[in-house]
Amino acid sequence: AISSMEKELGFSVLARSRAGVTLTNYGEHLLPYVNAVLNSDESLQQVVAEFNGMKRGTVKVGCFSSACTSFMPEVIKSFRKQYPAIRIEVFEGTYDDVFYWIKNGMVDFGFLSASSAGDLKLEIFYKDPLVCVVPKDYRKTGSGDSITVEEMAKMNFVVQRESTDADIQNYMKENGLDVPTDFHVVDDLATAAMVASGFGVCIMPELVMRDIPYDVKSYPLQPAASRMIGLAALTTQFMAPAVRTLYRHILEYCRNL
């Protein structure tokens, strides 16, 4: 089928090699339009089902890690009780992944931080404070319950990639925290493991800190900062019925946490 389509188009959309199959430049450009056609067909099927008094269809949601663990399990449970015929597909990735999936129509909407939403429509529902995570045996030298930028400037850091958490990178840049680091990681658990082993400290959203199994502790930041979490979409005007139903359900559920 792909070969026939390529003959009709007059160019290749897939590059085939021993390493596998990837999209060509032409394929990359066509992908959003192909997804738009597929999504339009799904939307049509959902509208017809709604006219017939049924709530059904498939909704694809993009999530970054802590949103996936903190919000989605209970959201899906409560949603399925009300709408058992609506199927939910969850795709986990970095901020950059979720942004790309939304822009290219690969998911219907997704969880994003305000710092990473770009020109997408974002409905914020949760304020997540940033904290400084330190080893369990860390002894604070300054006064007060929070850790200041001046204190952090003297510490070694375990740093996450910007695509993983742009809010942390922004905070460090805005406060002049150009600190030394030997560790550049992606995963939240890997970051916390390095901190627990005494290789440095890190800044994390409080939501992430809740799920950390390692022997660490955290302090509020001074100056304080938060990441603003919301649901991002290309538009909220023309959502398919099942998509709109889940979108509203998530907002209502998460705002009541």
CATH superfamily of the largest domain: Periplasmic binding protein-like II
Give the low-pLDDT segments: none
Question: Mean pLDDT, nearest integer?
Answer: 86
Which oligomerization state do the chains in this entry correspond to? single chain
Distance between the termini: 48 Å
| Biggest pleated-sheet summary | 8 strands, mixed
One letter per element, helices H and strands E, the order comes to HEEHEHHEHEEEHEHEHEHEEH
CATH topology (level 3) name of the largest domain: D-Maltodextrin-Binding Protein, domain 2
Q: Can you count the helices? A: 10
Walk me through what this model shows.
This protein has 10 helices and 12 strands. It is an alpha/beta fold and 257 residues long. It has 2 domains: 124 residues, 3-Layer(aba) Sandwich (D-Maltodextrin-Binding Protein, domain 2); 101 residues, D-Maltodextrin-Binding Protein, domain 2 (3-Layer(aba) Sandwich), CATH 3.40.190.290. The longest helix has 27 residues. It is globular.
In a nutshell, what does this entry contain?
The protein is of the alpha/beta class and 257 residues long. The protein has helices at residues 2-9, 25-51, 65-70, 72-82, 95-103, 149-152, 166-174, 188-196, 206-209, 241-255, and strands at 14-17, 20-23, 57-63, 86-92, 109-113, 121-135, 147-148, 158-160, 183-185, 202-205, 216-222, 226-233. The N and C termini lie far apart (48 Å).
Q: Which key phrases capture this entry?
A:
10 helices; about 260 residues; D-Maltodextrin-Binding Protein, domain 2; two-stranded antiparallel ribbon; alpha/beta; eight-stranded mixed beta sheet; 12 strands; about 40% helix
